[in-house]
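Blinded run. Sample ID left blank on purpose so nobody reads anything into the name before looking at the predicted structure. Input follows.
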Amino acid sequence: MGLDIGDIVPKEEKRIADFKGKTIAIDAYNTMYQFLAIIRQADGTPLMNRAGELTSHISGLFYRSINLMEDGLKLIYVFDGKPHELKKRTLESRREVKEKAYEEWKSALEEGDIEHAKSKAQQTSRLTEKMVNSAKRLLELMGIPYVQAPSDGEAQAAYMAEKGFASIVASQDYDSLLFGAPALVRNLTITGRRKLPGKQAYVDIHPEYIELKRVLETNGISREGLVDLAILVGTDFNEGIKGIGPKKGLKLVKEFGNIEKIIEVKKYDIPNYQEIRDIFLKPSVTDDFKLKWSKPDIVGLRDFLIKDNDFSEDRVETTLSRLEKVKNESGQSSLDRWF
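Blinded prediction complete.
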């Protein structure tokens, strides 16, 4: 998912504590898909309530958001709106991949290959409107604001960071840089020890901090050049040119200056390249939002998590106690200063 330009992007490893006091605009869909992929039982089955409704995304949002708030981060979640027409082909392709992975997951379960089953299960994640609404309800109860984007959530988050409503965009995808995010942090919501797919090995995941200005200066290109490079490599809106990765794409952009000249000389067929440029450089965003951090509704959270979604009462109560402890710390707590 997303743009593959990691090889040319300078990154700085950080600790979550390094972002204390910062306002983070989080790509909600991207984050929820991560939770749906990794928060599963041993055989790959996602968490569900007694009604059979998936709750992995709720679990991830609840527990991870509280961890981040305890560390002094001020959170805003940004939700996707209607996808651009050019993105529908990509979404359809992903749907087909998920359907195939689902069949392979079931087959692996029947064969008793639990390890393979779980790896395939992680590729089956889907978000429904009901799941999105449940996530929004959770955030309301937690007192965390969210913004509904007209189209791409990353575009809206980048716009909010550009305009000073947020300090940093949080997403796994590099697309945020194309949309103009001054700063991007990856791995924020999945920091910790993670198992490598299909292997009996673990890695420690740390936040990666990326500044757009440094990306452009390091590679000697403009943001427009970065967008042209991305179109050559392939984005959510086009397939890209076979055989062109980020390094070759960078070389072409620096040699010829822009995608028009590259197409002219190399005879590449890149339909809709100007439209794709505009998606990134003139994205569909909105100023119609209000950011209000309110006190958590503890009673409402208990009902929503324990009664409605069958979460462990002991774990929820322990976590809510942490939330209240942070809120009620002597002086001005890391939560109270946002209210």
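Unblinding after everyone has recorded impressions. The beta strands are 12-13, 23-27, 74-79, 146-148, 168-170, 183-186, 192-195, 202-205, 208-211.
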